[in-house]
Amino acid sequence: MLQLNDLSFRRGPHLLLEAASLTVYPGQKVGLVGANGCGKSSLFALLLGDLHADAGAVTIPVGWEVAHVAQHTPDTTRPAIDFVLDGDRELREIERDLAVADAAGDGLRHGELLGHFESIGGYDAASRAARLLHGLGFAPGDEQRPVNSYSGGWRMRLALARTLMCRSDLLLLDEPTNHLDLDAVIWLEGWLKSYTGTLVLISHDRDFLDAVATHILHLEHQHLTLYAGNYSGFERQRAERLSQQQSAYVRQQREIAHMHSFVERFRAKATKARQAQSRLKALERMELIAPAHIDSPFRFGFEPAENLPRPLLRLDRAVAGYGEKPILNGVGFSLEPGDRIGLLGRNGAGKSTLIKVLSGTLPLLSGHYEQAQELRVGYFAQHQLDQLDRNGTPLGHLRRIDPNATEQVLRNYLGGFGFIGDRALDPIAPLSGGEKARLVLALIIRQRPNLLLLDEPTNHLDLDMRHALTEALQAFDGALVLVSHDRHLLRVTSDQLLLVDAGTVRPFDGDLDDYPAWLAGRDLTRASDVPESNRDGGERKQQRRQSAEARKALQPLRQREKQLEQQLAKLTAQRAAVEEALAAADLYLPEQKSRLLARLAEQRQLSADVEATEDAWLEVTEAIEQFGSREDENAR
Length: 636
Hints:
The protein is α/β, with parallel strands linked by helices. The chain has four domains: 2-234, P-loop containing nucleotide triphosphate hydrolases (Rossmann fold, 3-Layer(aba) Sandwich), CATH 3.40.50.300; 235-293; 313-521, 3-Layer(aba) Sandwich (Rossmann fold); 553-635. It has 21 helices and 18 strands. A six-stranded mixed sheet has the order 5-6-7-3-8-9, sandwiched between helices. The protein has a six-stranded mixed sheet with strand order 14-15-16-12-17-18. Strands 2-1-4 form a three-stranded antiparallel sheet, with helices on one face. β15, α17 (463-474) and β16 (479-483) form a beta-alpha-beta unit. α10 (246-269) packs antiparallel against α11, α14 runs parallel beside α16 (433-446) and α20 packs antiparallel against α21.
């Protein structure tokens, strides 16, 4: 078992732990939570032996294999799969010993090593590494790319895959979901649930903790408290403990009333859509968990937008991409004040591309982008953290966008985002990722946007800040479009889910809880992601036969879909030409009356033809999707 005995340690002048004792038993999955800067990562460094305690001791059983994610990935030209295989230390040692025995002609030693190699699953190691890579979002063939060809975020995924490759007894994961999209988070969640070793996990993703953790370890005021159960259970237990304090109780009652008003307001307008109902249930649950966050340092909200035009923005037949390569084709929808949209879709499907289009930072390749004159966009993306003035201060940044406000007003505002007192005057350069994210959100909210575009806003934010952001979004009166791997944030803030898939953007049929099943059904070729040399020949043959049958059955529908798309494009172009002709001023002269009537009749007929063709196209695409769903069920 893992034990801490009267452990105390400091980092510089700051006492992070004082006389902490803890026992974690084999097989337990412990979520380590606490405010940013309280010492969670330092505790990991203690467990790894990188830091030493001022008093007390850490005890890890002799012989336990400890795995953790390295902070830096080497700049190497080695293939990604070789880098991941290095995570299995024993495997690599046996391979080196086999090479030595082979060179020495030691047949007996070679045979012994082969037996050991087989017992640890050495023959399946490459397949296991490939499955880890593909589960974390790497495409087939990516495993042979050199490590140094990947960007920083993808190198972090490689480092995570390498860690999971280790057949560990103790696994230490510090914010493993930070560089993952929702698909990879769901996969990792399933992998960790089946992990048989002992897990200690730092995470600010409440849904992830709820699914994985059997215990929650709370680091607060230099003390460790272990709670049995998942994160939701921890919140309930902590709320009960805090309610015993009179001052906390008063604040809790205000917080409950605050959340209750959101729930009642939303209940009055909730539609029958499954995601809207899911959001209502999540809001009702927030009434219960709000008291657990009454001691949060974060308090902020949105001021009413100055203007709320309808629509705020409209896309029509939009094609978007980079260079000459389209990522999205034929996208069309509008955004109204009050819209709450969550974007779903695989990594690389185009979610961030759509956000960039909506923000106006990525011009369309074709189609129409129309925005209201009074549109004011609040756009959050990770790259904005790097665009902050490194030599500036939080107060200086805020004064640039609100020069007429007094310093005290600005300081009070920044205090709600955790920049209290002199922290408002700290330079930007040494701020943590979480502090920079809080500052960017503060700057966006201060500008009173009427369209809010959030692309992974919770990376680096702790649980209290995520809770405060979730509450603030309830009172936002503009439109919200959100991309996030934080399912709790998506569930509580989104009324409607749009699926970005295969170049299209369409409503997702279901709620957030249905998305993992859609992923499983969509990925009919999951088994084929494993390299051909590592798969059973009979299985490959059966999959090829099933795929061929599916393609044959779908061929008529696909052909019809293509014909209707071509017909729709032709009719739409004809209608656009007629509408352009109708814009000519001379067409409305008295002597042109018969010509005008003919044009109007042509417009009506083309509009009817477009509508009929669209209906036919929708029927065909629905049939294709239903067929695909049946095939998915058969595959499962």
